């Protein structure tokens, strides 16, 4: 069967499976229950994209990888080699990327999405996510997208709008906040929500560590400033969102999850904070800060204290603590299968729950929902946890207290006006290769 006739077949069988009321929700990406192969494409062939691709291929049922896209051909080739090495080919995992379905350049995402796929994995640097999600939803393709889902407020607004349209079309969206698929997080937060430790009084969340990879290419090795920033994307705000957005989002998202009960999505209503760039100051580290400390306040007055640091030789912690009426719940740690509740009466309760690797589980869950035609959207909380991180950055950069409402509605866009190899970037360095760094009290973040 050709791709288009296979899709038509799926649409027709969906009609019987879903009934007349769901007809309006059908699209080319909307699946009926069945044994059919799910075709996937990858956009952003780096470390995480390669991993996500392998996990999608290993999810239950037949999955076929048909297209890959990256701005750089070397990245695409390396990723395909790694997927081939890491996925045992059997009759459920097929790797069928032909030369004609390897796409490079800034429009590669459109070509991948237009390759007749059912699911696209979006794993580029996060600045591109809103644009790529919008296109996938327009074309009726289901999405797995990595966190964060944007780097500025206009991007978050766009993701929320795409999420709304995706729901209308019956499309499924997974977001790479994998703690939501990690058994001990699910179990412990369920117990907090059930009131086992009393009301939540305050939260503390941390991503304090030594930082990530050093710049990968020198300016001399790159043809243009655009290529230089793309190769070293972590250190540029429009691409990465600063590390508060890029990494600390995981912990801020846990705070939002704890505060959201009964499906009622909660996120901070205001924040203030301080941060700077004290140790990682060489111009090769672009423009981002190396530390942020933010005090967030939720609508009911509950405060979440947040720290993230990228400085070696300091106290490190990637964790969350929830202070409740009767004790402190200590969460944190990938790969862990138990968390502790330290009660104020001196007793310690261990919450133990083992499950699959959450990176695998999140794909099993998304692909399961696609196959079974179940509603599935992680985009709203993914967008608002991204916005929580962006709000924090807006506070540390400006030194001001800012409401979520103002941040979301008036936060300045930071994406370049166009994407070309020789584009003039708004954050271009000076003649000495030095980037302007935000100055609290001076830097403007609201329009
Ligand atoms: N959930 C997690 O725990 C987790 C872990 C690691 C990374 N991530 C997320 O995954 C994303 C990618 O991170 P990574 O570590 O894989 O980075 P990476 O640098 O290894 O890969 C990014 C890839 O995207 C490509 N790219 C850049 N711009 C592009 C464009 N416009 N179109 C197509 N391709 C483009 C790059 O060339 C590169 O191959 C980030 O958002 C990151 O936060 C999530």
At a glance:
The protein has 447 residues and is of the alpha/beta class. The chain is built from 14 helices and 16 strands.
Walk me through the structure.
The protein folds into 2 domains: 3-179 and 363-379, Rossmann fold, CATH 3.40.50.720; 183-356 and 386-410, 2-Layer Sandwich (Dihydrodipicolinate Reductase, domain 2), CATH 3.30.360. Strands 15-14-13-12-8-11-10-9-16 form a 9-stranded mixed beta sheet. Strands 1, 2, 3, 4, 5, 6 and 7 form a 7-stranded parallel beta sheet that branches. It contains 14 helices and 16 strands. The protein is globular and about 65 Å long. α5 packs parallel to α6, α6 packs antiparallel against α13 and α11 crosses α13 (379-398). The longest helix has 20 residues, at 379-398. The protein has 447 residues and is of the alpha/beta class. Helices cover 34% and strands 20% of the residues. The protein binds nicotinamide-adenine-dinucleotide (NAD).
């Amino acid at each position: 069967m050709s791709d288009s006739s296979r899709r038509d077949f799926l649409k027709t069988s969906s009609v019987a499976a879903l009934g007349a009321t769901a007809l309006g929700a059908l699209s080319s990406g909307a699946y009926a229950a069945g044994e059919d192969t799910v075709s996937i494409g990858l956009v952003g062939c780096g470390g995480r994209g390669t991993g996500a691709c392998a996990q999608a291929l290993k999810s239950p049922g037949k999955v076929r990888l048909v297209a890959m896209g990256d701005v750089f051909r070397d990245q695409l080739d390396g990723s395909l080699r790694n997927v081939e090495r890491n996925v045992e080919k059997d009759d459920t995992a097929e790797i069928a990327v032909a030369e004609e379905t390897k796409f490079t350049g800034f429009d590669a995402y459109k070509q991948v999405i237009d390759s007749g796929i059912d699911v696209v994995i979006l794993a580029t640097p996060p600045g591109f996510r809103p644009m790529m999600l919008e296109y996938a939803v327009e074309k009726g393709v289901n999405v797995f997208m990595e966190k964060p889902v944007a780097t500025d407020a206009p991007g978050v607004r766009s993701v929320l709008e795409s999420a709304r349209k995706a729901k209308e079309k019956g499309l499924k969206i997974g977001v790479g906040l994998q703690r939501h698929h990690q058994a001990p997080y699910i179990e412990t937060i369920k117990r907090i929500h059930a009131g086992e430790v009393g009301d939540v009084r305050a939260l503390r969340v941390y991503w304090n560590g030594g930082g990530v990879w050093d710049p990968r290419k020198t300016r001399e090795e790159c043809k243009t400033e655009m290529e230089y920033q793309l190769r070293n994307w972590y250190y540029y705000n429009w691409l990465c969102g600063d590390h508060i957005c890029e990494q600390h989002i995981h912990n801020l998202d846990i705070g939002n999850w704890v505060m959201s009960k009964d499906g009622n999505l909660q996120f901070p209503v205001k924040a203030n904070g301080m941060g700077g760039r004290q140790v990682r100051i060489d111009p090769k580290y672009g423009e981002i800060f190396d530390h942020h400390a933010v005090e967030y306040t939720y609508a009911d007055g509950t405060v979440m204290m947040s720290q993230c640091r990228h400085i070696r030789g300091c106290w490190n912690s990637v964790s969350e603590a929830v202070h409740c009426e009767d004790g402190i719940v200590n969460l944190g740690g990938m790969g862990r299968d138990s968390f502790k509740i330290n009660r104020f009466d001196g007793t310690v309760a261990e919450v133990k729950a083992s499950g699959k690797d959450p990176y695998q589980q999140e794909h099993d869950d998304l692909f399961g929902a696609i196959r079974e035609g179940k509603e599935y959207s992680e985009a709203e909380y993914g967008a608002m946890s991204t916005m929580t991180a962006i709000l924090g950055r807006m506070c540390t950069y400006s030194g001001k207290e800012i409401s979520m409402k103002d941040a979301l509605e008036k936060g300045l866009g930071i994406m370049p006006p166009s994407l070309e190899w020789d584009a003039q970037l708004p954050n271009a360095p000076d003649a000495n290769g030095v980037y302007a760094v935000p100055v609290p009290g001076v830097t403007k973040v609201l329009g």
